[in-house]
Amino acid sequence: MSEQVDSDLQTSPSSPPAASTRSGKILLADDGSEHAQAAVALLCDLPLSPETTIHALAVVPTLDIPRHEMLQHTLERTERILKQRGFQVVVELKGGVPAATINDYAHLHNPDMIIIGAKGLRATLGILLGGVAQQVVEYSSVPVLVVRAPYTGIRRVLVVSDGSPYSQCALEYLGSGVRGEGRTCEGRLPLPADADVRVMHVLPPALTPEIIARTWSAGPDMFFPMPPESIDEKAIQQEEENQGQALLAGAVKTLNVGGIQAGSLLVRGDAATEIMNYVKAHNIDLVVCGSRGLSQVAGWLLGSVSRKLVHYAGCSVLIVKTSAKPEKPRK
To answer: Residue 70 in 3-state DSSP?
Structure first.
């Protein structure tokens, strides 16, 4: 069972959302699917600068005429909708392997973000994330927003912060788009002014003497040292909560710098489980997180929590990529 501390949410201004003054470039992967159409609808709801250029890219695995013509009509529809919204639109139809082509295009044009539907037209019934979206998220070098249908707006946003350079970069990307020291995370996803934004930090499960004893007796390969005869459980938990609240205060401050008012939420338990339970219970529309957490496993392109959220959160998820590299532990 989770322990939860929820601060009073600071309400956003009631005035209509104003367009961001920062122009940018967004790559929209469009295959005409229900989820791709949801991505177009989400784009139209964002207070983006009219100078924002949206590259609508469709990729056909082969150049067979029926598939080619269908995607051409899809792009024409998308272009019409986005131009009516006032955006500058560049339409591209390419042949190739979809995920690789999308990532290659992003590498060439360096967009602030890739927006892609969670599943395409050929998704297997019952899967939660299509293969193309999965590969784009894994291997993209820029932030990726995976959009799920049905889309009903961006009213409730959950930002996940674990204190890692990756989550800090996600906060900066969302809040101000500045470059943090030692990392690159330019760009910004401007949210509607009336969006209810909360920042969540998940504390580890409480480490009780019973858990420590069971862990130690499991074998010499476990990471916990031999425990002392007694520990002050309450003191340890209070210190963790103090650190968690301090981390949340810093995260909220980062968002405030970018004009985003946010509340904070501290819970305890398994990170992915607690986040997904909160998403479901509070009908969250968008989760924002860094690509990785505090793990030192250098070979991981995407952290385990981020990967689980993209697959199972049940809502749209923004994974912010960064060049940040956590410091190596001292020997």
So the answer is: helix
Contacts 24+ apart (CB under 8 A), 238-247: 240/203, 240/204, 241/5, 241/203, 241/266, 244/201, 244/203, 245/5, 247/161, 247/163, 247/201
Q: Report the Cα–Cα distance between both ends of the chain, in Å, rounded.
A: 36
20 within 8 A of 55, measured Cβ to Cβ? no
Model confidence pLDDT, tens digit, residues 24-59: 899 999 999 999 999 999 999 998 888 899 999 999
Structure token digits, residue 122:
């050929």
150 Cβ contact list (under 8 Å, min separation 6): 34, 38
- What domains, with CATH codes, occur in the chain? 4-204+236-320 (3.40.50.12370)
Compute the distance between CA of residue 164 and CA of residue 202 in angstroms, rounded to an integer. Answer: 13
